[in-house]
């Protein structure tokens, strides 16, 4: 069969910039230097205006990080008009808190410094993540302006963000440990903080979003499963209540029957809620 097709361009093509080094940090007990990587998903060049950007932080209990593992599930957000940046951050075997927060903010500054290259609007930045990455997204958002966490290069650029979208994110490390339905992951909090949460209230406070919430905290969209046995859904409820009590724009969606890292979070209904939230606050275009 021979046939001529007349195809209209109904959706953009997507580039993937992989293994982009955004920072170099101490490695192997401080004796070496290691690269931290990120991946950028973006539409083909030629868009009429810079696009809002979503920074994604994957989960793994701060014990392991694969910043590329969820990229196929994020493509719909790129099709909808957002640039997605998936960020590698140090795990707790490599560095203890707040190294992970420092890494996240360094990635944001790096991308803002290359805004033209990656077609992003540096004034329209959202952070999103799952589990440990959800905790990181929350912490990035509530620490806008906290300069003690801006360490490294590109310090002429702010790491401030405008929106946060945690998926079943850890909130208070002590509460998550004590109120989880499973004790299988209790050790991850000790590894992250460098001590047991029960014995180190100062460390817990530094890693707790509640500590930093004010009436200027950016809007939040929270997702959590009602059957999560790893991160208590009550912790997201309390985070939501705290945000609302400070006058912060916040929404919490509980997924009935969803477990931790459930496939239900990857469904079109959730993607639509995220896109609607982003569009409501960012508008269409630059």
TrEMBL record:
Q: Which InterPro entries match?
A: AB_hydrolase_fold, BD-FAE-like_dom, GDXG_lipolytic_enzyme
Q: What EC number(s) does the entry state?
A: 3.1.1.1
Which stretches are annotated as coiled coil?
none
**Lineage: superkingdom:** Bacteria
| Segments crossing the lipid bilayer | none
The UniProt keywords, alphabetically, are:
Hydrolase
Enumerate the spans annotated as BD-FAE-like domain.
48-243
Q: Name one Pfam family in it.
A: BD-FAE
Matching entries from SUPFAM superfamilies are given as: alpha/beta-Hydrolases (SSF53474)
Q: Which GO terms describe its molecular function?
A: carboxylesterase activity
Write down what this protein is called.
Answer: Alpha/beta hydrolase fold domain-containing protein
* Source organism (scientific name): Lentilactobacillus parabuchneri
């Amino acid at each position: 069969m021979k046939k001529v097709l007349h195809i209209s361009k109904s959706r953009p093509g997507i580039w993937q910039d992989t293994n982009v080094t955004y920072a170099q940090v101490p490695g192997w007990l401080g004796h070496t230097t290691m690269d931290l990587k990120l991946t950028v998903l973006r539409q083909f060049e030629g868009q009429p205006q810079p696009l809002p950007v979503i920074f994604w932080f994957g989960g793994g209990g701060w014990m392991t990080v694969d910043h590329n593992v969820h990229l196929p599930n994020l493509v719909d957000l790129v099709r909808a008009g957002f640039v997605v940046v998936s960020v590698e951050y140090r795990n707790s075997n490599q560095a203890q808190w707040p190294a992970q927060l420092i890494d996240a903010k360094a990635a944001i500054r790096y991308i803002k410094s290359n805004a033209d290259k990656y077609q992003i609007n540096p004034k329209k930045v959202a952070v999103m993540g799952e589990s440990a990455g959800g905790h990181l997204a929350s912490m990035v958002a509530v620490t806008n302006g906290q300069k003690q966490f801006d360490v490294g290069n590109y310090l002429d650029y702010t790491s401030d963000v405008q929106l946060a979208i945690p998926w079943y994110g850890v909130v208070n490390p002590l509460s998550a440990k004590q109120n989880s339905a499973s004790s299988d992951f209790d050790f991850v909090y000790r590894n992250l903080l460098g001590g047991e949460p029960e014995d180190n209230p100062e460390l817990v406070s530094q890693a707790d979003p509640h500590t930093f919430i004010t009436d200027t905290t950016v809007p939040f969209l929270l997702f959590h499963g009602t059957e999560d046995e790893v991160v208590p859904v009550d912790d997201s409820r309390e985070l939501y209540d705290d945000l609302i009590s400070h006058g912060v724009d916040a929404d919490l969606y509980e997924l009935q029957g969803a477990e931790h890292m459930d496939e239900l979070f990857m469904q079109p209904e959730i993607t639509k809620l995220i896109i609607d939230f982003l569009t409501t606050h960012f508008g269409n275009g630059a």
